[in-house]
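User: Good morning. I'm curious how zinc ion would be positioned relative to this chain. Could you predict the structure with it bound?
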Amino acid sequence: MTKWPVPGSETSVVPGESKPGSFWEDRGDRFHCGVDIYAPAMSQVLACETGEVIDVGIATSPDQVSYWDTTRYVLVKTRSNLYCRYAEFADVVVHVGDRVLEGQVIGYIGAVIRPHLVDGCSPHYIQRLKLDGHISMLHFEVYRLRPGYMRNYRGGNWFGDGRPEGLLDPGPYLLNAVHGIEKY
Ligand SMILES: [Zn+2]
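Assistant: Good morning! Here's the predicted structure, ligand included:
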């Protein structure tokens, strides 16, 4: 059983295939490496599962893409030997080497998009996020191998052919948490 990571999310449903924010969503020039869970900025993010923080860093930055704001990520190696990347935080409250317990607050969601810089030339999915008011979210990825530096990876998306080594669909992992919450 895992824990749903965003108690304040709009829904506790994993976005289905081809829905905005779904896993491996085709975004034209890029594919989505995780799932997006929409929630207001500064919503708490909880660890889905007990594990160890093995990396913390910058997830998105205006230096990479002008319409992005600066957000951070946390990479956790879980007790079940998976690697969960939680991304698009305003604030991270854990450090590399920390043990985190399931349900522990690890950070607060940030605004990933700067709406005033999104226009008709921005990627379609970015325009849609602005239109829907979905500018803050948890971006969540799961790997069965530790993700290293990936040349084609930027801001939770994969540019080009192939896909990141060891990348998994986070759906089944999170579904476990959803069922826990809804007591199916
Ligand atoms: Zn995302």
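Residues 32, 34, 36, 139, 156 surround zinc ion (CB under 6 Å). The radius of gyration is 15 Å.
Let me know if you'd like a different ligand tried.
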